[in-house]
Model the fold of this input.
Amino acid sequence: MARLYSNENFPLPVVEQLRAFGHDVLTIQQSGKADQALPDDEVLKFASGDNRTVLTLNRRHFIRLHQKDQAHSGIIFCTFDADFAGQAGRIHKAIGGQISLNGQLIRVNRP
Done:
């Protein structure tokens, strides 16, 4: 299963469902870095330093970071979806067959 790091704007119900699937998900709140207005490059750096793939709804900034440098532990960006269980299922499916998420940019869109 994947080691993931959810960005501040990522829905907690999706995190909880991903944990139920067996993924190791650390939230930015649990890491003690919430409410600090951390720049996205710092979020990515922290996640990569802990060998975790970032989960985010912030597409534009993280796509730019990936385009600048693919030396990271992965980025999964999603469109907002109020169907949290469905969103978690799509994320789980998108990363299920991956041996490594390092350097990857994975898009998970709502249907």
About this structure: The chain has one domain: 3-108. Helices lie at 12-20, 40-49, 59-68, 84-96. Strands lie at 3-6, 24-27, 53-56, 75-78, 105-108.
